[in-house]
Amino acid sequence: MKLALFSHCAIDTITIDGTNHEQIGGAACYGGLTARQLKFDVDLYTKFGRDFPMQYLIQNKIHFENAISEKLTTRFAIDITGSDRTLKLLHECDPIEYTTINADGSLVTPIFHEISAGVFTKIKKDSSFTLVDPQGFLRQVDSDKNVVLENTELDLSDVNAIKVNPDESQKIVNGSHDEMMMALQKKGVEHVIFTNKTEVSLLVKDKIYSITLPNKEVYDTTGIGDIFCATFCCTMLKEKDFLWALCFAGGAAQAALDSKQVGLLKIPQKSAIETNASYFYNLVKYRTI
């Protein structure tokens, strides 16, 4: 099976407890490598500069075309304290160009403005299943290049699934956590995933299904959401079962956190994802709203 992934590659300088780690990343890398672990082929729609080690993508059999830009690769400085992090935009690469999709489903997870509204519309119309992580649509920068979220009007018609956290959802809709999930559903989204640190909820029709990730020590959280989204998307495409998709995605996020690794070293093995998924499947709670 094949996943089409729309996102910029990035080069991140991650600071944890005063120590700097320069890593390649972005949703393109975290999501792409996770999909490869799940035995999916990956068509990556991205842009990066000549400062990006594209050999890494080639070695991991992630397919891309027309990706090289004359601009520098999108770069962030990321400062992590516990489960909180701040981002500063250092460079922004060219936007992603649209190409016809030939895949089982699409993962749209921009990191900063690389997907225009027009390209987004074309992706949705050309894809049989689309999962969106809207963070890059919502991000702006202040005068000091710090990344902040701003209220954004998003057309979510033809979107099959969306993953948001409380801060992101408040920039798209209003209300309590449940009310925001329902408001996103009313915009046309079939599966609304709401992540609030260790609490993960999924709204489908009139029921909210939830799992809780074990509350262990958190190290580098960079890319955890991308790993989660790629796993949910791939599992939905393969199994057509939203409960298994929720459990596999939670299992992948937990396995990545358990590794206590920095950057792409935390990409979980398929076996660890499956073990955690079986654990979560027996602990899913649900309620009707």
Write a brief caption for the model.
This protein is an alpha/beta fold. It has helices at residues 26-37, 55-59, 117-126, 135-138, 166-169, 177-186, 224-239, 242-258, 270-281; strands spanning 2-6, 10-16, 19-25, 41-45, 62-64, 74-81, 84-91, 105-108, 130-132, 139-141, 147-149, 161-164, 191-196, 199-204, 207-212, 285-288.
Strand order across the largest sheet:
5-4-1-8-9-12-13-14-15-16
Calculate the terminal CA-CA distance, rounded to whole Å. Answer: 35 Å
**In total, how many beta strands?**
16
Could you tell me the CATH topology label: UDP-N-acetylmuramoyl-L-alanine:D-glutamate ligase
Rg = 17 Å
Number of domains: 1
Mean pLDDT equals 95
| Spatial shape | globular
Quaternary organisation: single chain
Largest sheet: 10 strands, mixed
Examine the secondary-structure arrangement and name the CATH architecture.
3-Layer(aba) Sandwich
The CATH class is identified as Alpha Beta
Class derived from helix and strand content: alpha/beta
| CATH level-4 homologous superfamily | Ribokinase
**Contiguous helical run count:** 9
Describe this structure in words.
The model has no long low-confidence stretch (mean pLDDT 95). It contains nine helices and 16 strands. It is α/β, with parallel strands linked by helices and 289 residues long. The chain has a ten-stranded mixed beta sheet with strand order 5-4-1-8-9-12-13-14-15-16, sandwiched between helices. A four-stranded mixed beta sheet has the order 3-2-6-7. Strands 10-11 form a two-stranded antiparallel ribbon. It has helices at residues 26-37, 55-59, 117-126, 135-138, 166-169, 177-186, 224-239, 242-258, 270-281, and strands at 2-6, 10-16, 19-25, 41-45, 62-64, 74-81, 84-91, 105-108, 130-132, 139-141, 147-149, 161-164, 191-196, 199-204, 207-212, 285-288.
